[in-house]
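User: Hey, my collaborator sent me this sequence without any context and asked if I could get a structure. I don't really work with proteins. Can you help?
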Amino acid sequence: MVWGAIKNAIGFGSSAGDELDDGPTRLPQYFPIEPKGCEKHSQKLFNCLSNEATDKVRDMERVGVYKSYFNDVDTQPVDPKAAEAVALDPTNTEYPQHGDNPLDECKTFIVNYRKCCNRNLKQKRNQLLQETVRVQEEYRYQGPALTEEEK
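Assistant: No problem. I've predicted the 3D structure and written it out in structure-token form, which is a compact way to encode the shape of the chain:
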């Protein structure tokens, strides 16, 4: 057990490739927290999300193959010429394809982050990170405000 922990700490333990699943890549429920002991994995994931995954999302928005998380938002291509090129040749690997998941760029970082957090969130020093906080009523999101003309 101790030997396995040492191997995992220096990177020779079970590889992240063993735990990669074939389903859609998703962030864990506890995502933006950074438990003590997981700083390295958290920073690698945050850097990947802010660079590679964000670039992929911007490319998808540019060609119009990005599906919005919100149902009431219609996505329009930012670059009509690129959208036209994708429509003419959908197998072109230069552009992102419809249905691509931007988080696939960071799949190994997500697995390492999840594995580290699952291990370290059980420790007493990180218990505070999982407590829920009640937001006061006046600070809660109410949705878009309607003007008198729209009512």
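In plain terms: Residues 65 and 98 are 5 Å apart (CA to CA). You can pass these tokens on to your collaborator as they are.
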